Amino acid sequence: MKTRNKTAIFCISFVCASFAQAQPAIYKDADYKLGEKLIAESNCVACHVSKVGGNGSAIYKPQGRINNASLLRGMVEQCNTQLNLGMFPEDVTSVAAVINRDHYKFK
Question: Quick one: pLDDT at residue 34?
Fold first, then answer.
């Protein structure tokens, strides 16, 4: 293998490892593709828009009452329960991990 290819593979591996480390331990087994799919299927954005207006993203307030990864996961579980979404615990974790990645960025 050429040195250039080895370097590219190393860089990709490093970036992936860095991303995995950037997420809190509670999300270590999260399935991000599944989380993205469940967010879309559950109409989370439409619900958030109905609550806060705009594009719904104002619901994510890192300095608000959600101030760590566990509380974020708990909030997703609350939505799951209140809206009777039928998500399994690992589904809730995957959704919370995507929200953390995209909005909160807890480490």
Answer: 98
72, 99 in Cβ contact below 8 A?
Answer: yes
Residue ranges covered by each domain of the chain? 3-104
C-beta of residue 91 within 8 angstroms of C-beta of residue 38: yes
List, for residues 22-72, the tens digit of each pLDDT value: 789 999 999 999 999 999 999 999 999 999 999 998 888 756 789 999 999
CB 93 within 8 A of CB 29: yes
Annotate 41-91 with DSSP letters as a single string. Answer: HTTHHHHHHHHH-TTSGGG--TTSS--SHHHHHHHHHHHHHHTT----HHH
pTM: 0.77
CB 35 within 8 A of CB 98: yes
